[in-house]
Amino acid sequence: xxxxxxxxxxxxxxxxxxxxxxxxxxxxxxxxxxxxxxxxxxxxxxxxxxxxxxxxxxxxxxxxxxxxxxxxxxxxxxxxxxxxxxxxxxxxxxxxxxxxxxxxxxxxxxxxxxxxxxxxxxxxxxxxxxxxxxxxxxxxxxxxxxxxxxxxxxxxxxxxxxxxxxxxxxxxxxxxxxxxxxxxxxxxxxxxxxxxxxxxxxxxxxxxxxxxxxxxx
Length: 217
Fold this sequence. Notes:
The protein is α+β, with helices and mostly antiparallel strands.
């Protein structure tokens, strides 16, 4: 009887550990920081596209994209590829993909699961958002904006900082032959609930990314 009880306890412990480890987080490959088109060629190719193929982005390309958006390019200081006022780094990048919603953790180079499920239809009012392989959601956390309490000032700074990140994504997509478009048209209440945002977190913009639709389709 004691042996049976011990076995049951061990099984429960293993199950509990497995459940704790099954966080749903995604570890990303080390981002590549070389290559791509020269800057002027990327600027010439930069454009907004609203038609996408359904093909998923491979992990390496996703890692490169997120690093270009708001990754750490100076490990000693933790500063990013996109500037932010007073180095607040108040704009966080969320990734909405078919498997779930994730928050990009630049320090750990990983995606932290926020919620399981396909929330892409909440990422915009346009029909294509429900089928695009990746929707990036930019979320400003006013709690990180030390010294600024006026809502209009917070909106000004977070809007500018979101723009820097969005342009990084545009240039990366132009360099890699990807399609992208940024938009403000989104139900922020519904999407915010899906992302489990707090009262101090506000969605600024959403940006869809994917492969361009094949010609002739």
